[in-house]
Design goal:
The complex is a heterodimer of chains A (274) and B (300). Chain A has helices at residues 4-24, 38-44, 47-78, 84-92, 99-110, 115-126, 143-169, 173-181, 186-197, 199-215, 217-224, 235-244, 248-273. Chain A is an all-alpha fold and 274 residues long. In chain A, helix 2 (38-44) crosses helix 13 and helix 10 (199-215) packs antiparallel against helix 13. The radius of gyration of chain A is 23 Å and the shape is globular. Chain B has 300 residues and is mainly α. Helix content of chain B is 70%, strand content 0%. Classes of the chains: A mainly alpha (274), B mainly alpha (300). Chains A and B meet through helix 1, helix 3, helix 4, helix 5 and helix 6 of A and helix 1, helix 5, helix 6, helix 7 and helix 8 of B.
Amino acid sequence: MFLLPGFSGVMIFYLLPFFEVARRSFYQSGNGVFTGTDNYRAVFENGAFLLAVRNTLLYMAAGVPLLMGISLFLSLLLRNLVLRRKLVSAMLLPMAVPAAVMVLTLQILIDRQGVINGVLTHVSEKITALPDFSAIDYLNTEWALVVVVCSFLWKNTGYMVILWLAGLAALPKEVEEAAQVDGANRWQSWRYIIRPGLSGSFFTIGMLSVLQIFKSYREVWMVAGSYPQAHIYFLQHLLQNWYLKLEFDRMAALTVILSLVLLVVCLSLQKRTD
Amino acid sequence: MGNRLTAPAWAVREYGKWRKRRRAWLAAFICTVAAVLICAPLLMIPGGSLMDNAEMKRMLSPILGEGKGFAVWHLIPLYPTISHFYRLLIESPAFYRLFWNTVGMTAAILLGQLAVGLPSAWAFAAFRFRGRNFLFGLYVVLMLLPFQVMLLPQYIVLQKLGLYNHPAAVILPAVFSTFPVFIMYRGFTRIDTEILEAARLDGAGEWQIYFYIGLPLGKMGIQAAMVLSFLEYWNLVEQPMAFLEEQAKWPLSLYLPQITIGQAGFAFAVAVMVLIPALFVFALGQDALEEGIAYIGVKT
């Protein structure tokens, strides 16, 4: 049958090892003693875990609404433009840029004595009405989270614009045109026609944005390494560092916790898309 | 509506047209600004790769910790030089090894995904079998999980199979990734089921249907999956870092961060070499790429 080779691979490399990890999360590695929920308790009592959860939630709370808002705004503007295709591809370009390349330019731009601070200082010196600008050390203060959110937006805006445009294209055009003929203004047609029509897209794109947050570790790691500033220490750093330190007990427990949380996200996503 | 004084009809029409045009221009302007902002950082790369070391050092000395003030950047170098490319392409044999590592890995993954994922996608699209919906749901969940969740499970299995520190440790899990299956599946669902039934009635075997109807008509989905996969695996970071101990086996994407900022010109030259294939694929596969992304969100 067609599915067999692929599915056996999925079993070997994804499902079986995952269940093995789930089993191990209740045991002590090495001597194989059953420890019940000890590993889970160790995770929840771990200071780094709490920090990472807090940061990840903060990152999500900032990144997801911003990403959805900006990309929706842009796609509403874009959808009737002649230049749409060119602009969309330009916005999609970051998908083709390897993380390492992006990080190289970022280092020069956002260093404490980097180009961005240079420009900002120059501007604030010229315009006396502005308060004195003292150079911010972006990566070593709480500004690090702002940098991460910006790079997340940079990377994912084009992607989400395409999803919104697909959602907008699925709306029947006649309804909106009829409303316009009847004298609805742009706010009204957004409020009563476009927004309700997009409610499915809101949900899908929101969930996909959450998942993109979890997938954006690559850039963060490349900019700041394994032990970044405390505000951008995320759950992925924790997993990666426990892996390097061979702390497999706690890692197994955390893997199970995280995948359960993400499973809920995915399942709710599926309910809506099917 | 009383006896309000109204402008002549042609004036109202002209005014409406003008307002519409103005709105379109404004929208175009805002979107262009956004697009330019998104692309702007890339403009630093070509100039940087052609810049000689003295100029680079002068510009970046504040970052390098040797000066006060702020770094500046010339988009166009004052004294262009190809010395970085010379050093990279002629004097660094290590570069070729890593470059071909990346090419080999990416090619192996894409071919594997075609060989394994394509039939799987076809199975989901063309057949209704027991447990299909459950299995498909499982595939979707797996494709959405971030790598870190699978880090420990895959480590265990690779260790058991004795593949740790072998290129296959990166290639095999990627081959069985469920993401391309999903994209190709969406491509196949665009095919009218009546065509398949007609073919079956005419006595075509399942393999014939797959090769002569499925593959040609599902081309867009296949292309989309390949483009998305290429961009993902050309840029691999976490997997080789976790599963390949020897640096000689690493891909190019892990080599670049090791070059310190003090050798920025050289790093930019490497960046150009990493970027060119990715941009090439991006330019060629743009329609497929956009189609593929839209597949992820659209309801079926």
